């Protein structure tokens, strides 16, 4: 069977778009990977699955942690705040870890309630940031996060927001 150039081009475009979309079967979470991003590995655990991503533009890693959970829509806003508080309390291994109160932003992403925040810390005396975005749905929760030097926050946040 002979394929026309148009058919081959269309098949190549479909294959390329399939490679830039990630689907997590356990939670139904889906996200697109913009140009430059790739999945490095998926780490399953009893506490949820983590997908490690690499950005060839910023040369930074980011991750998405996902877990299937049932949530009442009316409780999600409280759950988002609790998730932020729990994450901040768990970051004892990062020197001076402190969430910027003015960075906490309730959002809607993909029709789901979300919350983003920036936390400052230092590594070897160097100012660093962690950018976090939680997304809760009635069936699952996901946390998109990544770390970068504080001076790179705006560019890195834009790159990570493009995924979430």
Description:
By secondary structure, the chain is α+β, with helices and mostly antiparallel strands. Helices cover about 25% and strands about 45% of the residues. The chain has three helices and ten strands. The strands form two sheets. Strands 3, 4, 5, 6, 7, 8, 9 and 10 form an eight-stranded antiparallel beta sheet that branches. It has a two-stranded antiparallel ribbon with strand order 1-2. Strand 8 and strand 9 form a beta hairpin. The longest helix is centred in the N-terminal third of the chain and has 15 residues. About 10% of the residues have low confidence.
Q: Count the beta strands.
A: 10
Task: Give the structural class.
Answer: alpha+beta
Overall spatial form: globular
Our Rg estimate from Cα atoms comes to 18 Å
The number of helical elements comes to 3
Strand content: 35-45%
Q: Sketch the topology as an H/E string, one letter per element.
A: HEEEEEHEEEEEH
Distance between the termini: 41 Å
């Amino acid at each position: 069977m002979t394929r026309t150039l148009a058919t081959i081009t269309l098949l190549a475009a479909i294959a390329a778009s399939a490679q830039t979309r990630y689907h997590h079967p356990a939670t139904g979470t889906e996200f697109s990977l913009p140009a430059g991003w790739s999945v490095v590995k998926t780490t399953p655990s009893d506490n949820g699955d983590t997908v490690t991503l690499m950005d060839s533009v910023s040369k930074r890693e980011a991750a998405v942690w996902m877990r299937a959970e049932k949530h009442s829509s009316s409780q999600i806003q409280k759950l988002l705040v609790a998730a932020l508080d729990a994450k901040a309390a768990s970051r004892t291994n990062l020197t001076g870890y402190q969430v910027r109160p003015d960075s906490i932003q309730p959002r809607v992403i993909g029709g789901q309630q979300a919350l983003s925040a920036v936390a400052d810390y230092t590594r070897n005396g160097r100012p660093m940031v962690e950018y976090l975005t939680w997304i809760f749905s009635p069936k699952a929760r996901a946390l998109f996060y990544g770390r970068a030097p504080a001076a790179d926050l705006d560019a890195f946040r834009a790159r990570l927001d493009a995924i979430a």
